[in-house]
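# nightly structure sweep
# worker-07 picked up a monomer target from the shared queue
# config: single-sequence mode, recycle default, output format = structure tokens
# input follows
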Amino acid sequence: MDLLDSIVIGAGQAGLSSSYHLRRLGIPHLVLDADDAPGGAWQHRWDALTMQDVHGVAELPGSVPPPRTSARANTAVPATFAAYEREHELPVRRPVHVDRVTDEDGILVVHAAEGTWRARTLVNATGTWTQPFLPHYPGMETFLGEQFHTVDYPGPEHFRGRRVLVVGGGASAVQFLGALAPIADVLWATRRPPVWRTDDFTPEAGAAAVALVEQRVARGLAPQSVVSVTGLMLRPQEQEAARRGVYDARRPMFQRIEPDGVRWADGSFERVDAILWATGFRPAIGHLAPLHLRSALGGIQLDHDGRGTTAVKDPRIQLVGYGPSASTIGANRAGRTAARGVQQYLRTPAPALDATA
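# output follows
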């Protein structure tokens, strides 16, 4: 079993960016991807999501962004990723389902059902899509209607003419409400009042928002999504829902779920046919547990006050698409930073052995 200089886990935006920069630095590596085909999480999005609907897909390094057309995002972006892998001859192997990463005498060993690989360093680019967060509420198992999380959202047409409760205060919830309001009867519930952004989202405002996420990562806290600190804005696609007053009619979270609806703390009841949980995701980092990277506060602390990609507890490990780099633009930048982190570690001389020991 050959020893690689680095292994990248995941071939989404962050993983491909990392591989591109590792190749440019001449660092031998392998990219392990769990999917059957290129495209990262994009290939799993709902069919009704078009390139005009998405919040924006940044170009991969050395390329141009996919055009904003009426093409389905779950085919357009994967096609772009596939062409990128071919053009830059990136060493992607798939499907490989990584179970765990262990340390064996100073070497990182990546274990998967499909094989085992050894490397000096590792770039983790597994994102969040495979770790949907679904909160538990009393009675949810008794609900006779349908329940979906963002990860398995079937598209708006599935809900036509039905009464749908959208749960969650992030960008996905706003987008779902905008798509459903013209064709369904919608309700909206969130734990906290949404924070709307009414001013222009300037580069300075974006940097300030990302800095808040960096502060959490620097302290070793579990990261929040970048959108949780940027605030919410309505795009043209959501204006019809706004005109209908959907966003003004938000309610606090219900107390329990009953077979045909939900009941609030004041005793009032709302009948619903379906519940759409737009409650976000968590970082997919369970396979790194054997390396004990988490801090006592629950997250993985990164270097440079949270702006870097190197795990403070283990400089062999780079994390991209984690915390402040969990966006397409952030993932590109993190890929370059991670490749340089790998290069720096590989150039660091090993500590001298104590001859008297």
